[in-house]
Amino acid sequence: MCCVLIGNLMRIDILTLFPEMFHNVLENSILRIAQEKKLVSFHLHNIRDFSTDKHKCVDDKPYGGGAGMVIKPEPIFNAVEAVEAKEDLASKKILLTPQGKTFDQNIADDLSKEARLMIICGHYEGFDERIRSGIDAQEISIGDYVLTGGEIPAMVIIDAVVRLVPNVLGGNGSLQNESFTNGTLEYPQYTRPAEYRGMRVPEILKSGNHRKVEEWRMKEAIKRTQERRPDLLDKKTKE
Ligand SMILES: C[S@@+](CC[C@H](N)C(=O)[O-])C[C@H]1O[C@@H](n2cnc3c(N)ncnc32)[C@H](O)[C@@H]1O
Fold first, then answer.
1. What is the distance in A from the centroid of ligand 1 to the CA of 103?
2. What is the pLDDT of residues 40-75, one digit of tens each?
3. How far apart are CA 154 and CA 111, in angstroms?
4. Among 162, 187, 205, residue at a domain's last position
5. What is the average pLDDT across 188-203?
6. Sign of the torsion formed by the C-alpha atoms of 46, 153, 36 and 87
7. Domain that includes residue 205, residue range
8. What is the reported pTM?
9. 19 ligand 1 Cβ < 6 A
10. pLDDT surpasses 80 at 171
11. 157 and 40, same structural domain?
12. Residue 2 in domain
Protein backbone atom coordinates (compact mmCIF):
# COMPACT_ATOMS: atom_id res chain seq x y z
CA MET A 1 0.00 0.00 0.00
CA CYS A 2 1.20 3.54 -0.79
CA CYS A 3 1.53 6.29 1.78
CA VAL A 4 -0.76 9.31 1.83
CA LEU A 5 0.58 12.86 1.70
CA ILE A 6 0.18 14.70 4.99
CA GLY A 7 1.41 18.17 4.20
CA ASN A 8 5.02 17.15 3.52
CA LEU A 9 7.12 16.85 0.42
CA MET A 10 5.69 14.75 -2.40
CA ARG A 11 8.33 12.76 -4.27
CA ILE A 12 7.84 12.02 -7.95
CA ASP A 13 10.18 9.57 -9.69
CA ILE A 14 10.04 9.53 -13.48
CA LEU A 15 11.43 6.52 -15.39
CA THR A 16 12.07 7.45 -19.01
CA LEU A 17 14.36 6.89 -21.98
CA PHE A 18 14.39 10.65 -22.63
CA PRO A 19 14.97 12.48 -19.32
CA GLU A 20 16.16 15.63 -21.08
CA MET A 21 12.64 16.17 -22.46
CA PHE A 22 11.45 17.07 -18.95
CA HIS A 23 13.85 19.85 -17.99
CA ASN A 24 12.00 22.83 -19.44
CA VAL A 25 8.64 21.69 -18.14
CA LEU A 26 9.79 20.86 -14.61
CA GLU A 27 11.89 24.02 -14.30
CA ASN A 28 9.20 26.55 -15.17
CA SER A 29 5.97 28.03 -13.86
CA ILE A 30 4.04 26.19 -11.13
CA LEU A 31 6.24 23.08 -11.20
CA ARG A 32 9.31 25.19 -10.47
CA ILE A 33 7.48 27.07 -7.71
CA ALA A 34 6.29 23.79 -6.16
CA GLN A 35 9.92 22.67 -5.90
CA GLU A 36 11.08 26.02 -4.55
CA LYS A 37 8.38 25.83 -1.88
CA LYS A 38 9.71 22.34 -1.06
CA LEU A 39 6.30 20.81 -1.63
CA VAL A 40 7.37 18.48 -4.44
CA SER A 41 10.64 16.95 -5.61
CA PHE A 42 11.23 15.44 -9.05
CA HIS A 43 13.73 12.67 -9.76
CA LEU A 44 14.51 11.68 -13.34
CA HIS A 45 15.92 8.22 -14.06
CA ASN A 46 17.10 6.97 -17.44
CA ILE A 47 15.75 3.45 -17.99
CA ARG A 48 18.78 2.74 -20.19
CA ASP A 49 21.04 2.99 -17.12
CA PHE A 50 19.33 -0.12 -15.74
CA SER A 51 20.03 -2.34 -18.72
CA THR A 52 22.67 -4.98 -18.03
CA ASP A 53 23.22 -5.43 -21.76
CA LYS A 54 26.71 -4.32 -22.79
CA HIS A 55 25.19 -2.02 -25.46
CA LYS A 56 22.61 -0.67 -22.95
CA CYS A 57 19.88 -2.03 -25.18
CA VAL A 58 16.34 -1.72 -23.76
CA ASP A 59 14.19 -3.04 -26.62
CA ASP A 60 13.93 -6.04 -28.91
CA LYS A 61 11.85 -7.43 -31.77
CA PRO A 62 8.38 -8.75 -30.89
CA TYR A 63 7.90 -12.51 -30.62
CA GLY A 64 5.61 -13.64 -33.40
CA GLY A 65 6.88 -10.91 -35.73
CA GLY A 66 5.40 -7.56 -36.55
CA ALA A 67 6.46 -3.95 -36.75
CA GLY A 68 8.63 -2.04 -34.31
CA MET A 69 10.44 -2.86 -31.10
CA VAL A 70 9.12 -3.75 -27.65
CA ILE A 71 10.60 -2.60 -24.31
CA LYS A 72 12.20 -5.56 -22.57
CA PRO A 73 11.13 -6.49 -19.03
CA GLU A 74 14.63 -6.58 -17.49
CA PRO A 75 15.56 -2.84 -17.60
CA ILE A 76 12.12 -1.82 -16.36
CA PHE A 77 12.03 -4.30 -13.45
CA ASN A 78 15.62 -3.31 -12.55
CA ALA A 79 14.77 0.40 -12.71
CA VAL A 80 11.57 0.10 -10.69
CA GLU A 81 13.28 -1.92 -7.95
CA ALA A 82 16.40 0.26 -7.74
CA VAL A 83 14.44 3.54 -7.74
CA GLU A 84 11.91 2.24 -5.20
CA ALA A 85 14.82 1.45 -2.85
CA LYS A 86 16.10 5.05 -3.00
CA GLU A 87 13.66 6.07 -0.31
CA ASP A 88 11.97 4.25 2.54
CA LEU A 89 8.54 5.18 1.25
CA ALA A 90 6.38 2.95 -0.95
CA SER A 91 5.43 4.57 -4.24
CA LYS A 92 2.18 4.56 -6.14
CA LYS A 93 3.25 3.35 -9.58
CA ILE A 94 1.79 4.57 -12.84
CA LEU A 95 2.38 2.80 -16.15
CA LEU A 96 1.63 5.02 -19.11
CA THR A 97 -0.21 3.29 -21.91
CA PRO A 98 -2.97 4.24 -24.36
CA GLN A 99 -4.73 1.10 -23.10
CA GLY A 100 -5.05 2.41 -19.53
CA LYS A 101 -7.86 4.18 -17.69
CA THR A 102 -8.43 7.63 -19.14
CA PHE A 103 -6.88 10.32 -16.96
CA ASP A 104 -9.28 12.90 -15.54
CA GLN A 105 -9.59 15.42 -12.70
CA ASN A 106 -10.74 12.74 -10.22
CA ILE A 107 -7.63 10.65 -10.87
CA ALA A 108 -5.49 13.81 -10.59
CA ASP A 109 -7.12 14.58 -7.26
CA ASP A 110 -6.49 11.04 -5.94
CA LEU A 111 -2.86 11.10 -7.07
CA SER A 112 -2.27 14.52 -5.47
CA LYS A 113 -2.83 12.87 -2.06
CA GLU A 114 -0.03 10.32 -2.53
CA ALA A 115 3.31 10.89 -0.82
CA ARG A 116 5.28 9.28 -3.63
CA LEU A 117 4.58 8.60 -7.29
CA MET A 118 6.64 6.58 -9.74
CA ILE A 119 5.74 7.24 -13.37
CA ILE A 120 6.95 4.77 -15.99
CA CYS A 121 7.11 6.07 -19.57
CA GLY A 122 7.01 3.65 -22.49
CA HIS A 123 8.34 4.13 -26.01
CA TYR A 124 8.61 2.27 -29.34
CA GLU A 125 5.75 -0.28 -29.59
CA GLY A 126 5.25 -0.23 -25.84
CA PHE A 127 5.96 -2.62 -22.96
CA ASP A 128 6.50 -6.38 -22.90
CA GLU A 129 3.27 -7.75 -21.39
CA ARG A 130 5.17 -9.11 -18.34
CA ILE A 131 5.83 -5.53 -17.26
CA ARG A 132 2.09 -4.98 -17.02
CA SER A 133 1.44 -8.19 -15.18
CA GLY A 134 4.53 -8.19 -12.93
CA ILE A 135 4.58 -4.61 -11.70
CA ASP A 136 1.81 -3.42 -9.45
CA ALA A 137 1.01 -0.21 -11.31
CA GLN A 138 -2.08 1.74 -12.29
CA GLU A 139 -2.27 1.90 -16.10
CA ILE A 140 -3.18 5.39 -17.26
CA SER A 141 -3.90 6.84 -20.70
CA ILE A 142 -4.22 10.56 -21.36
CA GLY A 143 -6.72 10.02 -24.18
CA ASP A 144 -7.76 7.91 -27.12
CA TYR A 145 -4.80 8.58 -29.39
CA VAL A 146 -1.31 7.12 -29.65
CA LEU A 147 1.72 9.25 -28.87
CA THR A 148 5.35 8.37 -29.56
CA GLY A 149 6.25 7.96 -25.92
CA GLY A 150 5.05 8.34 -22.34
CA GLU A 151 7.02 11.56 -21.74
CA ILE A 152 4.30 14.02 -22.77
CA PRO A 153 1.59 12.03 -20.91
CA ALA A 154 3.85 12.04 -17.81
CA MET A 155 4.19 15.83 -18.04
CA VAL A 156 0.43 16.22 -18.42
CA ILE A 157 -0.23 14.09 -15.35
CA ILE A 158 2.49 15.76 -13.27
CA ASP A 159 1.18 19.24 -14.09
CA ALA A 160 -2.44 18.33 -13.30
CA VAL A 161 -1.47 16.57 -10.05
CA VAL A 162 1.08 19.01 -8.64
CA ARG A 163 -1.20 22.05 -8.91
CA LEU A 164 -3.64 20.16 -6.63
CA VAL A 165 -1.03 19.53 -3.92
CA PRO A 166 -2.00 21.77 -0.98
CA ASN A 167 -0.28 25.18 -0.96
CA VAL A 168 1.25 24.81 -4.44
CA LEU A 169 -1.14 27.39 -5.88
CA GLY A 170 -1.32 30.69 -4.02
CA GLY A 171 -5.05 30.87 -3.19
CA ASN A 172 -6.74 27.49 -3.00
CA GLY A 173 -10.00 29.28 -3.90
CA SER A 174 -8.90 29.25 -7.53
CA LEU A 175 -9.12 25.44 -7.53
CA GLN A 176 -12.65 25.24 -6.15
CA ASN A 177 -14.39 26.77 -9.16
CA GLU A 178 -12.24 25.28 -11.87
CA SER A 179 -13.65 23.19 -14.68
CA PHE A 180 -14.39 19.56 -13.66
CA THR A 181 -13.87 20.18 -9.92
CA ASN A 182 -17.60 20.46 -9.21
CA GLY A 183 -18.70 18.40 -12.16
CA THR A 184 -19.22 21.47 -14.35
CA LEU A 185 -17.12 23.67 -16.61
CA GLU A 186 -16.02 27.01 -15.21
CA TYR A 187 -18.14 30.15 -15.75
CA PRO A 188 -16.92 32.85 -18.22
CA GLN A 189 -14.15 35.06 -16.85
CA TYR A 190 -13.47 38.74 -17.65
CA THR A 191 -10.79 41.26 -16.77
CA ARG A 192 -10.15 44.93 -17.66
CA PRO A 193 -11.05 46.79 -19.84
CA ALA A 194 -14.81 46.89 -19.20
CA GLU A 195 -15.39 47.26 -22.94
CA TYR A 196 -13.19 45.92 -25.74
CA ARG A 197 -14.04 46.23 -29.45
CA GLY A 198 -17.67 46.74 -28.53
CA MET A 199 -17.78 43.65 -26.29
CA ARG A 200 -18.85 44.57 -22.77
CA VAL A 201 -18.29 42.88 -19.43
CA PRO A 202 -21.67 41.80 -17.93
CA GLU A 203 -22.94 44.55 -15.60
CA ILE A 204 -23.51 42.12 -12.73
CA LEU A 205 -19.75 41.46 -12.44
CA LYS A 206 -19.13 45.18 -11.83
CA SER A 207 -21.98 45.54 -9.33
CA GLY A 208 -19.97 44.63 -6.22
CA ASN A 209 -22.89 42.43 -5.10
CA HIS A 210 -21.06 39.19 -4.22
CA ARG A 211 -24.19 37.10 -3.78
CA LYS A 212 -25.53 38.10 -7.21
CA VAL A 213 -22.11 37.53 -8.79
CA GLU A 214 -22.01 34.01 -7.29
CA GLU A 215 -25.54 33.27 -8.57
CA TRP A 216 -24.63 34.52 -12.05
CA ARG A 217 -21.47 32.43 -12.13
CA MET A 218 -23.28 29.28 -11.02
CA LYS A 219 -25.99 29.81 -13.67
CA GLU A 220 -23.40 30.47 -16.39
CA ALA A 221 -21.32 27.44 -15.38
CA ILE A 222 -24.37 25.17 -15.72
CA LYS A 223 -25.43 26.80 -19.01
CA ARG A 224 -21.95 26.42 -20.45
CA THR A 225 -21.72 22.79 -19.31
CA GLN A 226 -25.14 22.05 -20.82
CA GLU A 227 -24.00 23.52 -24.14
CA ARG A 228 -20.55 21.96 -24.30
CA ARG A 229 -20.40 18.92 -22.02
CA PRO A 230 -23.90 17.68 -21.09
CA ASP A 231 -22.32 14.33 -20.19
CA LEU A 232 -20.76 15.98 -17.12
CA LEU A 233 -24.19 17.07 -15.83
CA ASP A 234 -25.62 13.57 -16.43
CA LYS A 235 -22.77 12.14 -14.37
CA LYS A 236 -23.29 14.73 -11.61
CA THR A 237 -27.02 13.93 -11.28
CA LYS A 238 -26.28 10.19 -11.07
CA GLU A 239 -23.82 10.73 -8.18
C1 LIG B 1 3.72 4.28 -29.60
S2 LIG B 1 3.14 4.02 -27.99
C3 LIG B 1 2.77 2.29 -28.01
C4 LIG B 1 1.36 1.98 -28.39
C5 LIG B 1 1.05 0.51 -28.39
N6 LIG B 1 1.72 -0.15 -29.46
C7 LIG B 1 -0.46 0.31 -28.50
O8 LIG B 1 -0.95 0.21 -29.63
O9 LIG B 1 -1.15 0.30 -27.47
C10 LIG B 1 4.60 4.10 -27.03
C11 LIG B 1 4.41 4.53 -25.60
O12 LIG B 1 3.90 5.85 -25.57
C13 LIG B 1 3.11 6.04 -24.41
N14 LIG B 1 1.78 6.50 -24.86
C15 LIG B 1 1.36 6.64 -26.14
N16 LIG B 1 0.11 7.11 -26.19
C17 LIG B 1 -0.29 7.29 -24.91
C18 LIG B 1 -1.49 7.73 -24.31
N19 LIG B 1 -2.55 8.09 -25.03
N20 LIG B 1 -1.54 7.79 -22.96
C21 LIG B 1 -0.49 7.41 -22.20
N22 LIG B 1 0.68 6.97 -22.73
C23 LIG B 1 0.78 6.90 -24.06
C24 LIG B 1 3.07 4.71 -23.67
O25 LIG B 1 4.01 4.75 -22.62
C26 LIG B 1 3.46 3.73 -24.75
O27 LIG B 1 4.09 2.58 -24.22
1. 14
2. 999 999 999 999 999 999 999 999 999 999 999 999
3. 13
4. 162
5. 98
6. negative
7. 177-238
8. 0.95
9. no
10. no
11. yes
12. no
